[in-house]
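Our preliminary data section would be incomplete without showing what the modeling component actually yields. Below, a chain of 188 amino acids is followed by its predicted structure, encoded as tokens that our downstream tools consume directly.
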Amino acid sequence: MADRTVVKRVKEQRDARLAEGWEEVRVWVPSREAATEVRNLAAELRAKAEALDGLTREVPIVTPETAARVATAIAEHGSKAYNTPSGAVLDLLSAMAREDNLIGFSQTVVIVARAKPANAKFIVAKVPAKIADFLVRHRGISAEAHFAWSQANPQWAEELKDAVRDPARFELAVEQMAESIKVFGKPH
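Predicted structure:
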């Protein structure tokens, strides 16, 4: 009997890669040596993706500075300096928010998701909390106002997660959210 946890993990990794646009290729080769060559080529291509080779072309407005910061965060994936393998990326997202760089924030998510598809769901799940903190720190919204608004608008987190992969749409969604919270908090 197959270990269900291994089968489940492999399926989740496959699904994550497919969701991020990766392609699965299965081939028959005539020898073990050829199979080793194919495996080595696949490992090389995955390493190039993690090094952002070609990925910044998929997010055409990304600045060289943002690309370099994302590459550094990806290179630190799994570092013991963080309590989660994606800690460096989460720190970069926090820094982008502190800098009021919502476009860079979104671009970071897009690029990291393509380079590290197995971590995309985890990183995207952190977006609402990072944006809530951003709104409190940079848009003059109190934590209480955000909490009250979020209770009346329970879809907000999913809407942000849906928008985060489109930088312009994400920036607009965050700014509209800030305005909505401000209006919501005013007495009528």
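The CA atoms of residues 50 and 116 lie 7 Å apart. Residues 27-185 form one domain. Preliminary results of this kind motivate Aim 1 of the renewal.
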